[in-house]
Amino acid sequence: MSSNNESPSTLKSAVDTATGYVQSGIAAVTGNPQDKAKAEQYKDKAAIEHDLSHSAVKAGPVTVTPTGAAKDDSDRTQGKWDQTIGSAKETVGNLVGNESLKQEGRDQNAQGQGKEAKGQLNDLGKGVSDRVQGALGSAVAGLTGDRTEQEKYNEIHDQGKTRQRGVEVELDKEASAGQK
């Protein structure tokens, strides 16, 4: 099993799951209850690690994961603000019967949605890019034995993962709201 002092990883959870299934196969052949218990431990740890590696919490314009925190792209924050103000203008326009204000609110809301989407794409692209750069850099540094450089690249990877998870949390929330 992977050590407890490492960051949660989807890859490690997949390896632990595979190890658990191999261990289950061994237990089935040998009939050894210890092998069966060990297999279940691997599978349970893999499930927990998978869940942790995909967990993220949004706190305003910041995403927090088990591996760190990342601030949202400014377009995401401004886009949300524009949507809020646009919706308020549209509501007030409806209440007072002002078509111009109502339309202005709709336009600002639509522009805000576009700006937020642009910010999400920026964060998603940067997140994926940082994860790849961090993983490759860490692997090379590990091969050369440079632990300081390896840690630096691990941090780049983790920052990218946090950015990516922040976008995923928002998109999942929007999709859930759309289904209700």
UniProtKB/TrEMBL annotation:
<feature type="compositionally biased region" description="Basic and acidic residues">
    <location>
        <begin position="146"/>
        <end position="180"/>
    </location>
</feature>
<feature type="compositionally biased region" description="Basic and acidic residues">
    <location>
        <begin position="70"/>
        <end position="79"/>
    </location>
</feature>
<comment type="similarity">
    <text>Belongs to the UPF0337 (CsbD) family.</text>
</comment>
<feature type="compositionally biased region" description="Basic and acidic residues">
    <location>
        <begin position="35"/>
        <end position="53"/>
    </location>
</feature>
<dbReference type="Pfam" id="PF05532">
    <property type="entry name" value="CsbD"/>
</dbReference>
<dbReference type="InterPro" id="IPR036629">
    <property type="entry name" value="YjbJ_sf"/>
</dbReference>
<protein>
    <recommendedName>
        <fullName>CsbD-like domain-containing protein</fullName>
    </recommendedName>
</protein>
<feature type="region of interest" description="Disordered">
    <location>
        <begin position="27"/>
        <end position="180"/>
    </location>
</feature>
<feature type="domain" description="CsbD-like">
    <location>
        <begin position="75"/>
        <end position="125"/>
    </location>
</feature>
<dbReference type="InterPro" id="IPR008462">
    <property type="entry name" value="CsbD"/>
</dbReference>
